[in-house]
Amino acid sequence: MERFTLPGIPGELNWRIPPRDWSAGPGNRLKIVAAERTDWFVDPATRALQDNAPVALFTPPVAEFLLIARVNVAFASTFDAGSIQLRASDDLWAKLCFEYSPAGEPMIVSVVTRGLSDDCNSAVIAGDEVRLRVAVTPATIAFHYSTDGRRWSLVRYFSLGSVDGLRVGFSAQSPTGDGCAAEFGDITWQPRRLSDIRNGE
Questions:
Q1: Shortest CA distance to 105 belongs to which of 130, 121, 120, 124?
Q2: How far apart are CA 119 and CA 105, in angstroms?
Q3: Which CATH fold topology does 3-190 show?
Q4: From CA 84, how far away is CA 135, in angstroms rounded?
Q5: Measuring CA to CA, which residue among 99, 102, 142 is closest to residue 123?
């Protein structure tokens, strides 16, 4: 699969599943266009697996880091989303999404999958842009979002357990629609730990 680099990301990204289209540009920008009926989800009721959303992943060189991106999504259909992904294995992974709700509202959604997916809707966001951040330590993961890049709100604090070879990256999805474009800008990777998970600093 095609590999590429982005300024500030410490390693090559490669497409685990390729998108319909993509581009990388100035400002640490990555645009991903997902094809129709694409998702990362394991339904806890039916155990139906959907694992066909395009995702570009890299392996961080250290176990403590922050990955931050400004995410803009061209919402059209329910569950269209752009997300930051963390993948330990095919049945152990998590994603922090900027997603279009069934009510037609952009919102923050998080999914943690340990065999089956645990799906949680969070805050509704005004507009089609937000900042997402994942904060990873050897034992924990924290998801945050921000509307201004200064004040961060906690979405989820959890653990995937002791994981070797965790990969991280960016994805778009369109589970019910004909496709979705998500653009990630100002992508920043920082090899450090937050001083306070709860207030995001």
A1: 124
A2: 17
A3: Jelly Rolls (2.60.120)
A4: 11
A5: 99
Structure tokens at 183: 């653009």
Q: How far apart are CA 30 and CA 189, in angstroms?
A: 14
Please answer whether residues 13 and 153 qualify as being in contact, where contact means their C-beta atoms are separated by less than 8 angstroms.
Answer: no
Per this entry, what is the length of the chain?
201
d(CA 101, CA 106): 6
Q: φ and ψ at 11, to 5 degrees?
A: 150, 165
pLDDT in tens, the chain (201 residues): 589 999 989 999 999 999 999 999 887 899 999 999 999 999 999 999 999 999 999 999 999 999 999 999 999 999 999 999 999 999 999 999 999 999 999 999 999 999 999 999 999 999 999 999 999 999 999 999 999 988 999 999 999 998 888 999 999 999 999 999 999 999 999 999 998 888 777
Q: In the chain, what are the helix, strand and coil shares in percent, each to the nearest 5?
A: 0, 55, 45
Q: Are 75 and 59 in contact (CB under 8 A)?
A: no
- Please, which residues bridge with residue 89 across strands? 92
Q: Can you read off the two tokens belonging to residue 108? A: 């923050």
29-35 β-sheet, strand order: 21-25, 29-35, 179-190, 65-73, 129-136, 141-146, 153-158
Residue 38 is classified by DSSP as B
Assign residue 47 a region: left if phi > 0, alpha if psi is -120 to 50, beta otherwise? left
- pTM value is 0.96
